[in-house]
Design brief:
By secondary structure, this protein is an alpha/beta fold. Helix content is about 40%, strand content about 15%. The chain is built from 21 helices and 20 strands. α8 packs across α14.
């Protein structure tokens, strides 16, 4: 039985919530009760940290009522009550409140955990233009006169230089800025991130005007991406005074440039959004980003430890796409395909210009990869104004070639107006078998690879005769698994598909059919897209259909592309990759099958590095690439034992 992690902390994750609670302006008791309700609700969902809006304890729109001693006393009492709730519910809370210190009034975010007020962060940038008048009531953090303030008979750390570290989880460090701070030229959260903060919080009161929603969302995305951090933003809701402004309660949780969750706007009742933030992923991103490593924050910070509860590892509250390379939305997917196709085309066009080549040789099988490579080549020739007849498309039927794939290859070459050559490899391979003493009836790896190498020899020699280049057809997924014949289809003079994963190739071919080509060519391309993936090196079945389906041998490419993204792009451990795969493929594959193919992935990925160490040139199109000259530097003799042992323990 496969044993998965029990708690989110085992996966390097934290469950975070943002809330826009129902408020009444200046009704502190009501507001505190609604905040406590929100704490209880999110605690019931396994959350360990809740962020509420700016000045939510009193209401942001109190105006000159902020001068009233009764209001300020009530706010302090409410903080102590909410601190007690934090211990009872086992959840940390950050909420906005006015607090006085040294004869000055500050707009603050109070951090409550374990029954205590563990720290208070005052706002630095006070908006005082347009509809904002904060300087009328509040002083900036820069005007504070002490590093502590007294609440309930205790001295509490006070200042914008505070960072809050979860006890027992050194990578979970919380930084807080307040509303306008994030809209400033140099947000404090940038320095906080440089000092180690991985979770940035912003209690805000952002009024709604035309276009503000999209701008706010882009701000959260951009700041989380720039800081390589998670960014939680809780905004005041429509319960605030509508004298001159309306507040929508638009709260969001972002992570490294993406929005994980957000609330519905203009709801008077409490609105909550919850997401599992992946702290480990953020730390991994920072470790490999030398720009982040070289960044230095001015000044020093104070670290305050706080207790953070555990969340049981059940269904994750964050997107875990089963196809991380393929966007779910059709419009976004089409845009992605267009961009990739343009990169591939431009890369090949540059190589042709540099070498002065007006001829290329490409092996076509009627399968997905070679079809995509042919389409890229055709568009590159068109872009350079070269005659398509200079594209020599060679189909080389062998022992496993089927009528369907051969027919599609030949028909497509005809429709695209390229030069077609049909060269059977049967006789040459049989002669080679005789030379090396191999029995043709033995369908082993020699039987298969001899065909692949014969095809590559034909392409290379033909390119020499024509003074052209051989265009490679293999894709990123095949390179990751080493599912290519060394010095066979593994080799070319420019590999246009080297950065494209298998799960995306099919979409690219279908996109080309609809966006770049028309007529009969479109129909052929759609049929290619529906063809099973196969090297066609073993004889067809009794019905003349493909008898060798790649995924029957090495596992589903959908799983392997998922593994590739998690292992190479995100550097996750085997147990975390398995857990995420079980989340993503819950209704498709049982955990035991996922584990079996994950072991296959690690074994092949490590053992086949020698093939990737001598790859031909090819364009990078996405965030994962295995070129030894680009993103991936791995010794060919690296051992997989450490990773496989962890899988065995599961």
């Amino acid at each position: 039985m496969t044993v998965l992690p029990k708690n989110l902390s085992d996966l390097g994750m934290v469950r975070v919530a943002v809330a826009s609670p129902e408020v009444r302006v200046a009704d502190v008791a009501f507001n505190a009760e609604r905040i406590a309700r929100a704490m209880a609700e999110v605690a019931g969902q396994g959350c360990t940290l809740l962020l509420c809006p700016e000045l939510c304890v009193t209401g942001y729109t109190c105006g000159d009522l902020f001068y009233q001693a009764r209001l300020l006393e009530g706010a302090r009492d409410a903080l102590l009550q909410l601190a007690a709730e934090s211990a009872r519910l086992g959840i940390a809370l950050v909420a906005g409140t006015p607090l006085a210190q040294g004869g000055r009034l500050f707009n603050c975010a109070a951090f409550l955990a374990g029954g205590r007020i563990v720290g208070v962060v005052p706002k630095t940038f006070l908006p005082n233009t347009g509809e904002f008048y904060e300087e009328r009531w509040f002083s900036s953090e820069r005007d504070r006169t002490a590093d502590v303030l007294e609440i309930g008979g205790e001295e509490v750390p006070f200042g914008a230089d505070l960072l809050f570290r979860a006890a027992g989880r050194p990578s979970c460090i919380v930084g807080i800025e307040i509303c306008e701070d994030a809209w400033s030229v140099s947000p404090p959260s940038g320095a906080m991130a440089m000092r180690g903060a991985t979770l940035l919080l912003n209690p805000s009161a952002s009024p709604e005007i035309l276009g503000k929603e999209a701008y706010r969302r882009s701000l959260v995305q951009a700041q989380s991406g720039r800081c390589l951090a998670a960014y939680a933003y809780a905004s005041a809701g429509p319960g605030e005074s509508s004298t001159d402004l309306v507040y929508s309660g638009h709260s969001l949780i972002g992570e490294n440039g993406f929005v994980l969750a957000e609330t519905e706007r203009f709801r008077f009742e409490t609105e909550i959004a919850v997401a599992d933030v992946d702290i480990e992923r953020l730390v991994n991103e920072r470790l490999k980003n030398n720009t982040f490593a070289a960044s230095r924050a001015p000044g020093v910070c104070r670290i305050v430890d706080f207790p953070l509860g555990e969340t049981a590892a059940g269904k994750l509250l964050r997107p875990v796409p089963a196809a991380p390379f393929v966007p779910v939305l059709c419009e976004e997917r089409a845009c992605r395909c267009g961009e990739i196709f343009a990169i591939q085309t431009a890369g090949l066009a540059k190589r042709l210009k540099h070498t002065g080549s007006e001829r290329v040789v490409i092996g076509i099988s009627g399968g997905l990869d070679s079809t995509l490579a042919l389409l890229v080549t055709v568009k590159a020739f068109d872009r350079l104004g070269l005659d398509r007849k200079g594209i020599v498309a060679v189909t080389m039927p062998g022992f496993g070639t089927t009528t369907r794939t051969r027919g599609n290859a030949e028909k497509l070459a005809e429709l695209l107006g390229v030069t077609l050559k049909i060269i059977s490899i049967d006789a040459a391979v049989r002669g080679h078998f005789a030379d090396i003493g191999h029995d043709e009836a033995v369908h082993d790896i020699t039987y298969e690879n001899s065909q692949a190498r014969e095809r590559t020899q034909i392409l290379m020699d033909l390119a020499n005769r024509l003074s052209g280049l051989v265009i490679g057809t293999g894709d990123l997924s095949e390179l990751a698994l080493g599912w290519c014949t060394y010095n066979g289809d593994h080799m070319s003079m420019y590999a246009v598909n080297a950065g494209v994963p298998k799960t995306l190739v099919r979409y690219l071919v279908d996109w080309c059919a609809d966006a770049e080509f028309s007529g009969e060519a479109r129909a052929v391309l759609h049929d290619v897209g529906a063809t099973p993936v196969s090297p066609e090196l073993l004889p067809p079945d009794e019905n003349g259909e493909i008898g060798q389906v790649t995924e029957d041998h090495i596992g589903p490419y959908m799983l392997h592309d998922f593994f590739l993204f998690q292992v190479v792009r995100l550097q996750f451990s085997p147990k975390k990759v398995l857990y995420l795969a079980c989340q993503a493929f819950d209704d498709q594959f049982p955990a035991e099958e996922i584990l079996r193919w994950l072991k296959t992935f690690y074994r092949r990925f490590f053992s086949q590095q020698f093939k990737r160490s001598c790859l031909p040139d090819g364009p990078k199109v996405g965030s994962v690439v295995l070129s030894p000259r680009g993103d991936w530097r791995m010794p060919s003799d690296a051992c997989a034992e450490l990773w496989l042992r962890e899988l065995e323990e599961l």
